[in-house]
Amino acid sequence: MSSKAIVMQSDEKKEVHLVVNGDSYELLVSSHETLLETIRDRLGLTGTKHACGTGECCACTVLIDGKPMLACLSLAADLEGSEITTVEGLAEGDQLHPIQESFVEKGAIQCGYCTPGFLMAVKALLDENPNPSESDIRWYLRGNLCRCTGYVKIVEASLEAAKRMKGVDNK
Fold first, then answer.
1. What is 98-165's CATH topology?
2. For 13-88, CATH number?
3. How far is CA 167 from CA 66, 103, 106, 130, 170, in A?
4. Does the N-terminal or the C-terminal CB of the chain have fewer CB atoms within 10 Å?
């Protein structure tokens, strides 16, 4: 019986241009580097959480060209020219985004680990549908997992954020 050697090729690298939270980056990324690894480890934006790593919990949700996507399943090398918004990109300086304010005020944050993913999903929802019903919110957030809140406060905070983003403030 003859044996055959398997030769592993070195990891290929690719230069990509990404715009993350309005800042432009030219990065040399490996073919298997996830967007989650890029934004957390290389750009130092640690608000996006690494939880399941398999796309099951949505804790790593970011906006890629305005659409909610899972950073743990997105390859950085495939995102040439994309605009990415992480949870750090919501606030303007010290001023929280209305979604963030609503989550804090309604107690929708609990331990906070899943919160960045929820915030980004709610942002995408409200950009798409500025006047969602409770059932719209529950449907849109159906993949986001939280072990602390029971989702009631998250839905309440999302409804409040929708009002605030339309200029109606019902604290």
1. DNA polymerase; domain 1 (1.10.150)
2. 3.10.20.30
3. 22, 17, 18, 11, 10
4. N
